[in-house]
């Protein structure tokens, strides 16, 4: 696999960092999850369980090893730095300044492993006026302006369906780490990555910056192409209180749909800018789609060259033939479902190890690999170092 031989120390918590390291594990990296000695990774306790494990934990920690370590002790830090001497990558997501206080920051690791690639993921970055503000995804989306455009029909912000800051930071961190690994092959030098969730959101909104950059004003969601201002890019209710979407604003799709409906007179309005001039088409669709059930509209659109989809629930989305074909919902030998691998190489595909480690499952093995004796390991355990 692509990352065979790459060793990763994972100090991160919750979602962004664990997502990065799981994707690396799926492609062959050896990932050692560093957990505190008491409760460990927080998402071991969050959400629904299957047996002794939460789904959240198994969806972010499969294929990793778990080492419990007290990084507030000098001996715990020494063990971590011993592991770092043979590592390639370190990922952390503490609040800025924490790793420096613990002594496991980039400079400390680089002192024992000069070519280390070290990535810090945080809400707002490692410097700047907001550096000390505590924040998870929702607060970051609110602060940067994204949430103000995620609104209901009355214009009130609503909770997002996906943690954009977490997941965009994760994917950009993965890209950054892989770029740094590639560059290290050429120069022999490692690097430090400072990835902010807020930076990641803003960088992934180039299609929504028109009003901001051109007119120096905030967008009006109902006048924006991708937020409801375009009749062919909206959510519509159906007769049975379900929903469908039109998801392609190209004029050819409007022409195809309106011609089939016998409303060629509305095609020209779909060429107008998003907003009030398209409102008559929006109102027509609002009334039209309420005349049939979602299933009836699915049949109507079958074979029609229009970007259309029913609004499925997540269970239905996982059960889709396309999802099954793409192996994005996998089933282990015990019959439990797991998310698949989204990055699909032809020559060296990833491989899922369904096992998620128990809290501290590999601690003694990993500490012993550094040359500590059984007596020393027993002493570490007795003193709360591991």
Task: Report on the architecture of this protein.
- There is one protein chain.
- This protein has 386 residues and is an alpha/beta fold.
- The chain has 2 domains: 7-203 and 356-382, 3-Layer(aba) Sandwich (Rossmann fold), CATH 3.40.50.10540; 221-319, formyl-coa transferase, domain 3, CATH 3.30.1540.
- 38% of the residues lie in helices and 14% in strands.
- It has 17 helices and 13 strands.
- The protein has helices at 16-26, 55-61, 74-84, 98-102, 106-112, 137-144, 164-187, 197-203, 210-215, 225-229, 251-260, 279-289, 294-301, 314-319, 321-325, 363-368, 374-382; strands at 7-10, 30-35, 49-50, 53-54, 65-68, 89-92, 117-122, 191-196, 233-237, 243-247, 308-310, 329-331, 337-339.
- A 6-stranded parallel sheet has the order 5-2-1-6-7-8. A 3-stranded antiparallel sheet has the order 9-10-11.
- Helix 1 packs across helix 7 (164-187) and helix 7 crosses helix 8.
- The longest helix is centred in the middle third of the chain and has 24 residues, at 164-187.
- It starts with 6 loop residues before the first strand and ends with a helix.
- The mean pLDDT is 97.
Summary tags:
386 residues; alpha/beta; Rossmann fold; formyl-coa transferase, domain 3; 2 domains; 6-stranded parallel β-sheet; 3-stranded antiparallel β-sheet; 17 helices; 38% helix
